[in-house]
Write a sequence for this structure.
């Protein structure tokens, strides 16, 4: 419901007594017409440059490879609007793979998270959809030069991917169990970035444990349609850096890895059920592997 205030709820407001403002802006509330309310867990940014330089062609080919398996677990690319190029390209970022590039991610975050307009995103969100409020905007027009999103993009490009944690016989065996029960059908362990003018990102092998594709997750979906995604489809969550996370799934509802796995639906059902059927020792080893990522 972007027409009623943008893609992010602004639950705080400034003005009306302090900070030199002469107008009392009101904090936004969830519109009464909203039929879907979804919480989001913020995704980490480490290693994100490797993803940005992974080619669309490689992700399309990966989707084709998964489809050729014929096991019903294939993902698909989310074809979404690339605002800079004026075309539709493969989405890579966001829980629905709805954002195609880090540059677009940066511009979107600046305007929606911070209220900073740029040449790529020149329009302020109207508070609660009331554009008359923009009459009192203390800084109308473009707030930042076109370089601001580029600066953020450059910064994010160089955030290193997390190294693996300590390994043991249990983590090594646990990774094999992870593969045996079918988790790697979607959580693909290894990808390779494409061509980059940055040596550290140029044709580098990396280990995200994701295929960056949309998969039908049934009841685990968020009911939102973004780009070409359906309400039940979600991008495969990245598992690298998992040991640093304390809440799981797109909305943070799960507080343990067991809960996160048990919540899998749709194309994740078979692996979920195989996990549930594991002997306690095998399950402990698989979880030890996940905690080493």
């Amino acid at each position: 419901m972007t027409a009623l205030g943008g893609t992010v709820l602004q639950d705080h407001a400034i003005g009306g007594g302090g900070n030199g403002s002469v107008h009392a802006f009101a904090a936004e509330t969830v519109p009464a017409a909203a039929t879907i309310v979804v919480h989001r867990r913020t995704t980490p940014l480490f290693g994100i440059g490797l993803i940005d330089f992974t080619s669309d062609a490689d992700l399309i080919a990966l989707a084709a490879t998964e489809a050729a398996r014929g096991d019903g677990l294939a993902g698909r690319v989310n074809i979404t609007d690339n605002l800079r190029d004026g075309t539709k390209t493969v989405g890579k970022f966001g829980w629905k793979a709805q954002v195609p590039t880090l540059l677009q991610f940066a511009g979107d975050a600046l305007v929606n998270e911070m209220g900073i307009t740029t040449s790529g995103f020149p329009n302020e969100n109207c508070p609660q959809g009331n554009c008359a409020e923009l009459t009192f905007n203390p800084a109308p027009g473009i707030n930042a030069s076109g370089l601001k999103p580029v600066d953020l993009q450059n910064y994010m490009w160089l955030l290193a991917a997390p190294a693996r944690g300590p390994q043991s016989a249990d983590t090594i065996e646990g990774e094999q169990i992870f593969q045996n029960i079918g988790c790697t059908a979607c959580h693909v362990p290894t990808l390779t970035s494409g061509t980059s003018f940055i040596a550290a990102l140029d044709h580098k092998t990396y280990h995200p444990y994701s295929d960056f594709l949309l998969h039908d997750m049934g009841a685990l979906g968020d009911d939102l349609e973004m780009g070409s995604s359906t309400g039940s489809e979600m991008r495969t969550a990245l598992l690298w850096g998992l040991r640093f996370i304390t809440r799981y799934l797109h909305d943070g509802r799960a507080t343990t890895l067991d809960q996160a796995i048990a919540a899998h639906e749709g194309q994740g059902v078979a692996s979920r059920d195989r996990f549930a059927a594991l002997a306690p020792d095998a399950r402990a080893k698989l979880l030890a592997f996940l905690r080493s990522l």
